[in-house]
Task: structure prediction
Amino acid sequence: MARVPVDERRRQLIDAAISLLTREGVGAASTRRISEEAGVPLGLVHYCFSSKRELIGETIRFLNTENVDAARTAIQVGSGGRDVGDALRAGFRAYWLTVELAPERQLLTFELNAYALRDPDLATVAAEWDRDLLAAVRDLLDGVAADAGVRWRAPVAEVARLTLSVISGMTLSWLNDRDSAAARAVAELYVGQLSALVS
Result:
């Protein structure tokens, strides 16, 4: 077997975890099943990750980063003097495309978060996930305001929490009803409300 750098192996195992858990749900979250999915010896999983907790935590982080990066890229493409509403719409559209193209991955993020909350060994992962995601959304909102030359009239940490709550709720509702038109209408309404929070 060719020697593969640890970072590549870790990514391979995260991809295998996502593939397996998307298909079978979080009940399949064992290092043995993930090693089988990746086609590698079980010992390699334990070499790359100190524990199942670390592997699941990194899987959650990867899925969340994927969503935030899509929005960040869309916002940055047209940055520099762009209206706050236009930048937020671009970010939402990019995020929403990831939702509609891979709903199973979105469902998995909800499942993994609930799974982490219920497992004493993984309880801190959910809190870390929430902090990281809030920080990423806060940074995006700071960047949007700076590019538009405006300031948030409410604390950006609170605007970030509100934004994350709205997006999470919209995503979960869409996973239930698949009503994309309704989700886009809510997003447009929310962008309008956010645009009123800058000066």
Summary: Residues 51-195 form a domain with the Tetracycline Repressor; domain 2 fold (CATH 1.10.357). The chain has two domains: 1-49, 51-195. The mean pLDDT is 89. The first helix runs from residue 6 to 24.
